[in-house]
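Reminder: ligand-aware prediction takes two inputs, not one.
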Amino acid sequence: MKYIASCSFGKDSLAMILTIIEHGLPLDEVVFYDTGMEFQALYNVRDAVLPLLRKNGIRYIELHPDRPFLYDMLERPVKGRERRGYGWCGGLCRWGTTCKLKALDRYAESIGAKVYVGIAADEHDRLKKERKPYKIFPLASYKLTEAACLELCYAAGYFWEEDGGAGVVRLYDILDRVSCWCCCNKNLKELRNIRKYLPLYWEKLKDLQRQLERPMKGFYKGQPRGVFELGERFMKEEAEHEKAQEIPAPGQALDV
Ligand code: SF4
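Here is what comes back for the chain with iron/sulfur cluster:
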């Protein structure tokens, strides 16, 4: 029987790999599905982990989408629709996730492997949802919560540092989840941080929005919440915040 670990090289699945190695659980392969849309920091962490896998005799397998992610997003002809491409991925339309899960399951089933999945002990709903009998959840067995996973990775020297042009930041300091940089599941706090700390990725999001009709975050009270509208909103918020921070010089009257 082969044992493989599905690893996105985010904090949970990486903590799972480290735990498996630490406890000497059987592990033949680590499988990474590369959407091609990950943050550079994630690829850097992957590259830093590969020697550890080699040292422990674990094979590294990389799977890829059948077609480039951006082709499906922007150009793929879609039945019954005039416009091409599936559009933003996320929310109810997680076409990228569907491709990813199918490819990983297909691979595991083709070799009849048991699969370790990195769902943290405190992700109760996700743990309940997974039904395939060949899947194993070591993080739940070792009671490792999401916070514990991050701590474990940091202690092992993996930090997901990204230099987006405005200095180096750790992705987990500014994002709740490290997923594809173009994921429309990102909340407003995360998008605000991307604009502020990773301006190069913000430019990439603008570039995608120029090519997509649907606003990245849909509509709110009838108003579009695309990358450009959000950018303006964040800019205004920053200006207001800066104004509020201004401390009047001694003797200067307050502008009320
Ligand atoms: S992380 Fe987001 S963009 Fe990437 S595949 Fe999943 S839902 Fe799609």
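The mean pLDDT is 94. The CA atoms of residues 31 and 61 lie 5 Å apart. We will return to this case in the review session.
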